[in-house]
Design a protein that fits this description.
17 helices; about 500 residues; binds adenosine-5'-diphosphate; alpha+beta; Nucleotidyltransferase, domain 5; six-stranded mixed β-sheet; globular
């Protein structure tokens, strides 16, 4: 019996493999970056084969680093960059072209046409998604439309579509399994999140043949075993979830109303809404949080495009800091932001504003404004944008908001976390492990194979690093007032 669970974290820029022990502690990590291709304005591609190669290398390396053999691995869990689309030939296992990445905008025009034809409400009702190029459906159509041969092959059942989870499982099982889980399926614009089925109306609207679609499984379920020749043993593949959903699970946000926010380049915020798919009045996405034993738990999701990227901008363009973490020290040179508001719309504004044309602004500058004020205003901006989303989610969900669990690179910034707690007037809880996404995948896999008995056992493994409680006498009321007045003019 294996003593470890292995998580595959197939990210947007790198393929990672992490081994966890029974306590949920990461014992070894291996990682390989892969190439990002930008062939045209707005296009972003990956080489699916390179993703597999780097992932395979990371898997071999992590076993070596941990000095354990594959037969000591109880289960593998997979978490992945979502929506990125691969189509391959079932016979040869070769991708028919580059993978189209979630960031790719090439199908925006087609989405606009569908919207102009009043199709957006149909997609929203069935999938909980806004009709946008971000999701897989229109990317599948685009690939198939490139070549009549592909359409013909698809009609004959010779092609397979998958997001990165599906592609990697195909490779790991040497073509034995063509599956995805409900969280990944829920990001395709093709999957009805209410009936849990691929939706024929949507397939017709996007001209996608059902012959290419994977079987949709639970997020925690043994779907197959790795081919013995790859790692030296047949390891059960027991967990699959898209990256944000895996982080939600890894953060043990299992109660309705629990929320996690990831502070990376952008912020990704998800709230568990239990067994109710909440319809958002605030342009949030409705999505599947996880599916366990056939039972669906739903979530609402919102994202901020620019969060840590704002700190990068201060570092690289204004050069007021040398390294991202220095922002905290600089911000601490002032007690407040001195009436300065930083509107972080460096690439438009996402939920709940959805204004792609908005640009950033620094408002309220006087002769007395210092670098420290600007640094503090930047941290406030990240927390204020997160607050916009969390407040909108709360309104949508009508669920009591318990606390906010945080992760991601910028969550190590104590001042930012304190500002967030003050602005939300709630506790902000940071876990000990920063690898929440991979941990979520490991948890899902370990649950399926009995490595961990139940979610109660997992809850007990989740450890906090620090709780940030709202401070009395903080200046949040003024900061929020200025923010709301100034945002209204953007
Ligand atoms: P991603 O997964 O999006 O690449 P990470 O979770 O690795 O992002 O976080 C990196 C981002 O966080 C960068 O944008 C960086 O500017 C920001 N960041 C890192 N450390 C800090 C810090 N101490 N304070 C504020 N921002 C930080």
């Amino acid at each position: 019996m294996g003593k470890y669970v292995l998580a595959i974290d197939a990210g947007t820029t790198s393929s990672r493999a992490i081994i966890f022990d029974q306590k949920g502690t990461a014992v070894a990590i291996a990682q390989h970056e892969f190439t990002q291709y930008f062939p045209k304005n707005g296009w972003v591609e990956h080489d699916a084969y390179e993703i597999w190669e780097t992932q395979y290398k990371a898997l071999q390396e992590v076993l070596e680093k941990a000095r354990i053999t594959a037969d000591q691995i109880h289960a593998i869990g997979i978490t992945n960059q979502r929506e990125t689309t691969v189509i391959w030939d079932r016979e040869t296992g070769q991708a028919v072209g580059p993978a189209i990445v979630w960031q790719d905008r090439r199908t925006a025009g087609f989405c606009e046409t569908l919207t102009a034809n009043n199709k957006a409400p149909i997609f929203y009702d069935k999938t909980g998604l806004v009709l946008d190029a971000y999701f897989s459906g229109t990317k599948i159509k685009w690939i198939l439309d490139q070549n009549p041969d592909l359409r013909e092959k698809a009609a004959l059942g010779q092609l397979a579509f998958g997001t990165i989870d599906t592609w990697l499982i195909w490779k790991l099982t040497k073509g034995q399994k063509h599956v995805t889980d409900a969280t990944n399926a829920s990001r395709t614009l093709l999957f009805n999140i209410h009936t849990q089925e691929w939706d024929t109306t949507l397939l017709e609207l996007l001209d996608v043949p059902d012959s290419i679609l994977p079987v949709v499984v639970d997020s925690s379920e043994i779907v197959g075993v790795t081919d013995k020749t790859l790692l030296g043993a047949e390891i059960p593949i027991g967990g699959i979830a898209g990256d944000q959903q895996a982080a939600l699970f890894g953060q043990m946000c299992l109660e309705p109303g629990s929320v996690k926010n990831t502070y990376g380049t952008g912020c990704f915020c998800i709230m568990n809404t239990g067994d109710t798919p909440v319809r958002s009045k605030n342009k949030m996405l409705t999505t599947i949080a996880y599916r366990l034993n056939g039972k669906v738990t739903y979530a609402i999701e919102g994202s901020v495009f620019v969060a840590g990227a704002l700190i990068q901008w201060l570092r690289d363009q204004l050069q007021i800091i040398g390294q991202a973490p220095e922002i905290e020290q600089l911000a601490e040179t002032e007690e407040n932001s001195g009436g300065v508001t930083f509107i972080p719309a460096l690439s438009g504004l996402g939920a709940p504003f959805w204004n792609p044309y908005a640009t950033g602004a620094l408002l309220g500058i006087t002769r007395g404004t210092s670098k420290g004020h600007i640094a503090r205003a930047a941290l406030e901006a990240i927390a204020l944008r997160s607050r916009d989303i969390i407040e909108a989610m709360q309104k949508d969900a009508g669920a009591p908001f318990r606390s906010l669990k945080v992760d991601g690179g910028a969550s190590t910034n104590n001042l930012l976390m304190q500002i967030q707690a003050d602005l939300l007037n709630t506790q902000v809880i940071r876990p000990k492990t920063t690898e929440t996404t991979a941990l979520g995948a490991a948890f899902l896999a370990g649950l399926a194979t009995g490595f961990w008995k139940n979610t109660e056992e997992l809850q007990a493994l989740w450890e906090k690093d620090r709780i940030f409680s709202p401070q009395t006498n903080n200046q949040s009321a003024l900061v929020i007032k200025l923010w709301e007045e100034r945002m209204a003019k953007i």
